[in-house]
Amino acid sequence: MYSMLCKKRFTTENIPDLTGKVAIVTGGNTGIGYIIARELSRKNAHVFIATRNKERGEGAVEKIKNETGNNQVEFLHLDLISLKLVKQSAENFLSKNLPLHILINNAGVMATPWSLTEDGIQDQFGVNYVGHFLFTMTLLPKIEASTPSRIVNMGSEAHRYAYTGVEFDKINQEDAQSAFQRYCASKVAMILFTESLSKRLEGKEVYVNSAHPGFVATEISRGPISTYGFIADISFRFANMFSD
Q1: What is the predicted pLDDT for the residue at 177?
Q2: What are the alphabetically sorted keywords of the record (predicted)?
Q3: Does the pLDDT value for residue 161 go beyond 80?
């Protein structure tokens, strides 16, 4: 719907040649992440698709190779539900002794039924923010050594509905917020992290941005549908009629 109201200012054709650049896209096996990974590959980047499902991740790798003709596309196991595995994933990448020019923290969940990560953190806050925080900070020395480089954190206009901000003392209280409010709070945290990291890296040629993708038909609707059922399903089906 947003694209119908606003003139497009940037398309994939505007992406410059990325020969020699290395990128990681979390959640790159499907939806927005898949398109990002595909288009970076189309521009000759060496792309790692970081996701927890090995079968789907490797399937996306092969599909992108076939679509773009770029064979420098790889699967990187990343399970944001476990901080141990998050750190292991980052260290597995670092062990390859490659530079890292682009990190796109795209993976996420939305309005899921209540659950905790393996580390006992409310799942939306743990996956959308804490996991990506650890992944980014573990990779940061490599990103700083690969300048000019860029970090893009997937945000959401939903952060505007987190009226009380991030209430850290209530994150793990099941009845403190609705499923959607928990999602909004996780996006506030990600935006605050973006702003803080951007200030910390000012003048170092590491550019940190947060992006709101607009309304796009992706698998993230699984969370709201699981939580709210039929109403959410109908709402997403209607909204998807107006998405790109």
Answers
A1: 84
A2: NADP, Oxidoreductase
A3: no
Out of 2, 161, 163, 183, pick the active-site residue.
183
Domain with CATH 3.40.50.720 in the chain: 16-219
Q: Say which amino acid occupies 227.
A: T
183 is catalytic: yes
Structure-model confidence comparison of residues 167 and 156, the more confident one: 167
DSSP the chain: -HHHHS-----GGGSPP-TT-EEEEETTTSHHHHHHHHHHHHTT-EEEEEES-HHHHHHHHHHHHHHH----EEEEE--TT-HHHHHHHHHHHHTT-----EEEE-----SPPS-B-TTS-BHHHIIIIIIHHHHHHHHHHHHHTT-SEEEEEE--GGGGG-TT---GGGTT-TTTS-HHHHHHHHHHHHHHHHHHHHHHTTTTTEEEEEE---S---GGGHHHHHHHTHHHHHHHHHHHTT--
* Domain covering 16-219 assigned CATH 3.40.47.10 in the classification: no
- 113's tokens: 């039924």
Q: What is the pLDDT of residues 37-53, one digit of tens each?
A: 999 999 999 999 999 99
Work out the angle at residue 236's Cα, subtended by the Cα atoms of residues 230 and 241, and round it to the nearest 5 degrees.
Answer: 135
Total-model pTM? 0.86
Phi, psi dihedrals of residue 56, rounded to the nearest 5°:
-70, -35
